[in-house]
Amino acid sequence: MSERTRWGILSTGGIATSFVQDLKLLPDAEVLAVGSRSAESAQAFAGKHEIPRAYGSWRELADDGDLDVVYVATPHSAHYAATRILLEAGRAVLCEKPFTLDLTTTVELIDIARERGIFLMEAMWMRCNPSVLRLVELIRDGAIGEVTSVHADFGVAGPFEPTHRMRAPELGGGALLDLGVYPVSFAHLILGMPEHVRAWAKIGPEGTDENTGIIFGYDSGAIAALTSGMLGQTALGATVSGTKGRIVLDPPFFRPDRFTLHRDGAEPEVVGVTREGLGYLYEAAEVQRCLRAGLTESPLVPHAVTIQVMELLDKIREQIGLEYS
């Protein structure tokens, strides 16, 4: 690798724009190329963000041997195809969440990366957020005792047109994979893999979930109560409760700037970590750290976690009747 990590961007949508803006805050990052299915779209994106190279196909981007890593920011339904093309070309990949649409394709991509010794990471930025990392440290140090429950919600008001990625099944639509992946991932981060999973959802006319409730049960006695939806704005909050206190995250819980630690018998403590940019730079910095260290997966977002979270999403989809062709 050169002194600067050379990034490629696959897709030209809103989240790709936000990611590129944050990359500019990292002095050792360089956005070298962008790729899209449309040459016009790639050229427009490149011009707007001063990116030297623009490709009118994913394959052309994948074949650029000067790239150290490529960020995949397509709609969910294209994550698998885009990431596979990149891995088969030998490119390291940071792929947006949800990693794919199901467990089978998730495992397939991870197997390819492992067999070829290529770095691969799911872009679950929450797990790289400084405030979230500090929260995990406090919980592991016993700040609130043994964790007894996790509550988290992610709901937006909409409305969304039937062809919007939030609703269209051909784009991997539905509240669960776009929004619910955050409460599910947060509960997994705090409590691990549950022994019991129960879920219910209101399914919309397109066949995707509009409002979903999830309960995780653990043999320890702990529970997680999680919701996601696109029928009304929720507080975007999360609380972790334990036998000796609780932690309340400021919204949005998946990108918190601070949280409040309530220890039994003590005054509340506000814990804050100054956030830079929009919050994407932390996952980008983690990717760059791993690449320089010669790692093929991140200890913050390891392959095993991506697999387990997708296994949970598959179980939830089965219970609520959410299917993708």
Morphology? globular
C-alpha Rg, in Å? Answer: 20 Å
Structural class: alpha/beta
Which runs of at least 5 residues are low in confidence (pLDDT < 50)?
none
Question: How many angstroms does the end-to-end distance come to?
Answer: 40 Å
Largest sheet entry: 8 strands, mixed
What is the mean predicted local confidence, pLDDT? 97
- Major sheet strand order: 8-9-10-7-11-12-13-14
| Number of separate strands | 14
Looking at the chains present, what oligomeric state does this protein adopt?
single chain
Number of helices: 9
Percent of residues in helices: 25-40%
Order of helices and strands: EHEHEHEHEHEHEHEEEEEEEHH
Strand content: 25-35%
Keywords: Oxidoreductase
Domain Gfo/Idh/MocA-like oxidoreductase N-terminal: 6-121
Family: Belongs to the Gfo/Idh/MocA family.
InterPro entries: Gfo/Idh/MocA-like_OxRdtase_N, Gfo/Idh/MocA_domain, GFO_IDH_MocA-like_dom, NAD(P)-bd_dom_sf
Describe this protein's structure.
By secondary structure, the protein is α/β, with parallel strands linked by helices. Helix content is 34%, strand content 25%. It has nine helices and 14 strands. The protein has helices spanning 14-23, 39-49, 58-62, 79-88, 103-116, 130-140, 175-191, 281-293, 303-320, and strands at 5-10, 29-35, 53-55, 69-72, 92-96, 120-123, 147-155, 196-203, 209-217, 223-229, 238-242, 245-249, 258-263, 269-272. The strands form two sheets. Strands 8-9-10-7-11-12-13-14 form an eight-stranded mixed beta sheet, covered by helices on one side. A six-stranded parallel beta sheet has the order 3-2-1-4-5-6, with helices on both faces. Helix 4 (79-88) runs parallel beside helix 5 (103-116). The longest helix is centred in the C-terminal third of the chain and has 18 residues, at 303-320. The mean pLDDT is 97.
